[in-house]
Give the backbone structure.
Amino acid sequence: MFCAQSGAVISESVVDYDSRCDGVLLDPSDHLIARQDASSVGRATVQALKHCVEEAARDSRFSPGSVVGIGVDATASTPVPVDSTLQPLSDDERFRDQLPASAWLWKDHSSFAEAEELSAAARRSGDWFTQYGGSYSSEWFWAKVLRCRRVAPDVADAAATWAELSDLVPAWLCGESSVQRLARNICAAAHKSGYSVSGNGYPPRDFFYDVEPSLAEVWDTLNVRHYVGSERIGGLCPKVAEAIGLPAGIGVAAGTVDAHAGAIGAGVEPGALVKILGTSACTIGVSPIDQRLPAIPGLSGIVEASVIADHYGLEAGQAAFGDILAATVSLFGEGASHETLTLEAENFQAGETGLLALDWHNGNRSVLNAPQLSGAVLGLSLGARPGAVYRAMVEAICFGARTIIEQIAGGGVDVDRVIVTGGIALKNDLVLKTMASILGRDIVVASSAQAGALGAAINAAVAMGVYPDVPAAQAAMVPAPRDIIHPEADDSAVYDQLFSLYRQLHDGFGGLVASADYSRVMQDLAAIRTAVVERKSAKKPSL
């Protein structure tokens, strides 16, 4: 809970989902599957709101009636098959044990073939996905709906519609139980489903019918009004209000995607890219609507009003970020931890490990949009240490970040500064220092530990009329940066050399060049290491 005047935290609560595997439902037979119990999200939301109200009430100055609004953000694309009352099909006894009836979590990549099919069909019939650079992703709405039709037709047949999680949670808070009145948010629809604000909405019905007739039936259910995140969609229903201890009727804003809310809470504005660093990483930017932008290949959309009204919202991302570091720790057994590997990694200078890695452990989201790619480590020797491998992975995720930023800047978007937020931004100094040197620019660390929640609160404050627009609310509610990390000039020079080698691997294995030549990569990597070691030895005081 945030103060609408200052952005100060009044109370906060974190509630774990009451389903297995930290809320993620997996299938050991297919590592590309990642699902979620949608109803557990609803239960956790109510519990978290209740705890926030109870904590705030410990201060005698707080009154439940002083709450002006509720904002919601959620992962995307996380579509949920629901019945005619907007209840998840996984609550139905017929489908309780069927993963396809659950929420298809954003990082579920099992729909890669369907995404390729949609992309190919769009190129043949009308290039309907130009806002994504012409390529649709396995992480997104239509690919997942199509995949469900192929693998679980009984679930697909039973679904009255498919709803993004970021639309379902606000609907549940408002007590909405009608598919026809479900308020869908522009952010998820435009970045994940092909929705166009200034065009004719979604791609034509005939396009989806030609791919799979049942997709056209889903299309029919989407023909409703779409909202920006800073618009009011309804009021808190009596049942939920009683459960959490707030008056009924308090305004509820439209949902939005978690990363986009985090960007708002971190202070996104023209010229400032926000990187949300967590298990995965998203890069969010905005550009004034009067500055027409070209389609930039590899981005997850350049769309109107998805972040801030009267601006284009730009999204790109890395399908794994912190997950790569966690996976690296797990490789080295029970004695390894982030702390021990970080201490060992910090003993190496830039280029000293002789290692170079690719950060594609969960595929590449941007700019290759290739979920079947995998990670790699080059330069391993018999003397390679765990800390060296850990450092190589830190460098790899930062090289991936640089690739995205260069793609965005190359498309004509001003990038004056980079702001970081999320769990890793607040916990891992090695990542921040490495990123600053690899990017060759200052890294601004946002203050809020809950930038996504703050962004949702900012949307709610605008939706309820406290502020006229998001920039005005940001000016009042976004706190000053926590820190600014400066690049090390010597490290940046070495990382420029390593990044050149990374791009060779990236473009070659990623299929951007027809005939990649790797004949000098190992030798160049060894030469960089030798030069770094020699400089390091020369700086040691003689005995």
